[in-house]
Amino acid sequence: MKIITILCRPGTMNNYAYLLIDEKTGTSAVVDPSEAAPVIAACQQHDTRPAYILNTHHHFDHTDGNLEVKQFFKAKVIGHDADAGRIPGIDLPLKDGDTFSLGASQAQIISVDGHTLGHILWYFPGSKAVFTGDMLFNLCIGGIFEGTPDQMWQSVQKLKALPDDTLFYPGHEYTLYGAREALYFSHNAPEVVAYLDNARHRLEQDLPAGPITLEIEKKCNPYLSASTKEEFLQRLQH
Ligand code: ZN
Ligand code: FE
After folding, report:
1. pLDDT (0 to 100) of residue 238
2. Domain coordinates of the chain in residue numbers?
3. Please, what CATH class does the domain formed by 2-174 belong to?
């Protein structure tokens, strides 16, 4: 599966939408169309008409482009059934553990409450890719708006159970924001310093900091590297 990163709301919220193209069948989908114009432009540039819009959660900075992109390409909107009443244009509500076929590419829906209630990961095991929305960013995690810290802890454990060589694709470019706490909690660990050097180098070239493997993220992200729930909760409150 080909994955194209689309920066949306640059300079303000720095959202990432993604265009996924299953190369065997040509079937494509858009993850979290934050705004329509850059997403439609990317689809046209890659000469594809997405059949699906895959949402990670209901927040406007992930779904504002839903209706326009849906109408433009006649795409179907897919999200968690808990968000059935608040994801614009939703056609197909899915549950934790459900699978979804994007052409020949299989996705698993993994429920990760915390940032919101109804947040999901879109995990494509065959492509070793997981789209983490506002649950996991580079070196940090999403704010807890609807769930509880306990739920976020559980969600982090689910994410950490995915294979180490999985690449993650977050909903925002927040690497430099996450850097301060990652350096602080790791006492300037060399692997975190190297992570940041690499990220800065990529960002200077207008590239996303990632994708990063879960193996590296588990070592460098202070919320993934917390070894106990107590330590995790302490870091959240810091
Ligand atoms: Zn959000
Ligand atoms: Fe967001």
Report:
1. 86
2. 2-174
3. alpha beta
